[in-house]
Design a protein that fits this description.
about 375 residues, alpha/beta, Rossmann fold, six-stranded parallel β-sheet, two-stranded antiparallel ribbon, 14 helices, 8 strands, about 10% strand, EC 1.1.1.1
C-alpha cells in the first residue's frame, strides 16, 4: 500500500429535512450566488426549501447550468457574481451544477488579466476562491465532497477537469427525499457513475490496501442491491438513502487511498461526450466492459477478487474473472444503461479514430494504471465497445 495523505474539509448534512441547515451554514449577511440547472428544483419543492432557508440574505440567482456544464454558461454566471459582489456560491443540483459551482467560485475571484479557461486543466494557479456550499439533488458524481470538477467547451469539443483544494465545498446537504421525482434515466446514470468511480480506484492491481478494497467492495455491493430497488420503487426511502451515500463515498477520497488507480474509462468517456453529446454514464457503461476485456491480463488478479467478493462467483480463476466482466455488463443493462456504442447510433470505427485524435490533442498519451494505454490502445477499446 502506497504512502498517502487524506484531507476532506466538507461538512455533510445527510437525511430528511436537512436543507434547513442552510440557515446555519450561511452567514446572515452573506451575498449568495444561487446556481442551478433547469426547472426541476422548482417543481419538486427544493427551490422553495432553499429560498426559505436563505431568508434575510441577499440572493442572486443564475439558472441554466447544463448537464456537462458549458464553459460559456459558467463564465456568464461568474460575471454576474462579480457584478453583484457575491461572497458565497450555493450550487443546487447534481454533479454538473456542483462542478459548475466550483468553476464559478474560482472564476469570480480570478485576476481579470488571466484567461479563465486556464483554470481548467490546472494551467494557472488559484490563489483564492469564493466559499462554496451545495444541495445535492442527483446522487452520482460525489462532487459535493471533493475538490475536482469537469467543464465542457462545446465550441472546441473539450471536456476537461481541474482540481484544487480551494474549491472543496465548505458544506453539502444530502436529502434522499429530494431525489424521488428523478426520472429512471437519471437514476440509472447515477448508479453507473458511482459504480465506475469505485471500479477505477479498485479494479486495478493488488496493493495490499485491504481496508480500501473492502470499502470499495461494500460500495459496489450496495449499488448492486439498491440500484434495482430504487428504480422499481421510487418511494423506497432506505434504498435511495443508501444509493445517495454510496455515490458520495465512491469519490469521497477514502477508496483510492494507497491504491494504484486507473481512470482510463473516464478519460475515453469524456472524449465521447465532447464528440457525441452522450450522457457521461452512458460512455462509462459502454467503455468499462470493453476496457476490462482489453486489459484482461493486467487486471486478472483483481478481476478474480472482484468476482469472488462482489459477485459471489466460484469456479476456476479465469472463469470467475470472465464471468465478473459479464456480470458487470449485465448489471448496467439491468438498470437501463446500454453497454455498446451502437445502441446510441455511434459508429465505433469512426469514434475510435476521433477519440484517439482528441487524446493526442489533449496530451493524454499514457492512460491507465502505470500509463500503459496509448491512444491506439484507447481506439481499440472504443472499437470493442461498438
Amino acid at each position: 500500500m502506497d504512502n498517502f495523505t487524506f484531507h476532506n474539509p466538507t461538512r455533510l448534512h445527510f437525511g430528511r429535512g436537512q436543507i434547513a441547515q442552510l440557515g446555519r451554514e450561511l452567514p446572515p449577511q452573506a451575498r449568495v450566488l444561487l446556481v442551478y440547472g433547469g426547472g426541476s428544483i422548482r417543481r419538486n419543492g427544493v427551490y422553495d426549501q432553499v429560498r426559505g432557508a436563505l431568508e434575510g440574505r441577499t440572493v442572486v440567482e443564475f439558472a441554466g447550468i447544463e448537464p456537462n456544464p458549458e464553459y460559456e454558461t459558467l463564465l456568464r454566471a461568474a460575471l454576474l457574481g462579480r457584478q453583484e459582489r457575491v461572497d458565497w456560491v450555493l450550487a443546487v443540483g447534481g454533479g454538473s451544477v456542483i462542478d459548475g459551482g466550483k468553476f464559478i467560485a474560482a472564476a469570480v475571484t480570478l485576476d481579470p488579466a488571466i484567461d479563465p479557461w486556464l483554470i481548467v486543466g490546472n494551467r494557472t494557479p488559484l490563489k483564492t476562491a469564493l466559499p462554496l456550499g451545495c444541495v445535492l439533488t442527483l446522487p452520482a458524481t460525489g462532487s459535493e465532497s471533493n475538490f475536482a470538477a469537469v467543464v465542457n467547451r462545446r465550441q472546441t469539443q473539450d471536456k476537461l477537469s481541474f482540481k484544487n483544494p480551494l474549491v472543496f465545498p465548505r458544506f453539502s446537504v444530502l436529502d434522499p427525499q429530494v431525489t424521488v421525482s428523478l426520472p429512471p434515466r437519471q437514476i440509472g446514470n447515477g448508479i453507473v457513475d458511482a459504480f465506475v468511480h469505485t471500479v477505477e480506484q479498485y479494479l486495478t492491481v493488488p496493493t495490499e490496501a485491504r481496508v480500501q478494497d473492502r470499502l470499495a467492495e461494500g460500495i459496489l455491493q450496495t449499488l448492486i442491491e439498491v440500484g434495482p430497488q430504487t428504480l422499481a420503487d421510487p418511494a423506497q426511502h432506505e434504498a435511495r438513502a443508501n444509493m445517495m451515500w454510496a455515490a458520495n463515498q465512491a469519490l469521497f477520497g477514502l477508496v483510492g487511498l494507497g491504491q494504484v488507480q486507473d481512470w482510463a474509462t473516464h478519460a475515453i468517456g469524456h472524449e465521447l461526450t465532447a464528440l457525441y453529446g452522450l450522457d457521461h454514464a452512458q460512455t462509462l457503461a459502454a467503455i468499462l466492459p470493453a476496457l476490462l476485456r482489453y486489459r484482461y491480463d493486467d487486471k486478472r488478479a483483481k478481476l478474480i477478487q472482484y468476482g469472488r467478493r462482489v459477485w459471489q462467483l466460484s469456479g476456476g480463476e479465469d472463469e470467475i474473472a470472465q464471468r465478473a466482466i459479464a456480470a458487470t455488463t449485465d448489471f448496467f443493462g439491468q438498470i437501463g444503461v446500454a453497454t455498446n456504442l451502437g445502441a446510441y447510433g455511434i459508429d465505433a470505427d469512426a469514434a475510435a479514430q476521433a477519440v484517439a485524435a482528441q487524446l493526442i490533442r489533449h496530451g493524454r498519451l499514457r492512460l491507465g494504471e502505470y500509463g500503459r494505454l496509448a491512444p491506439d490502445d484507447c481506439a481499440a477499446i472504443v472499437r470493442m465497445a461498438g
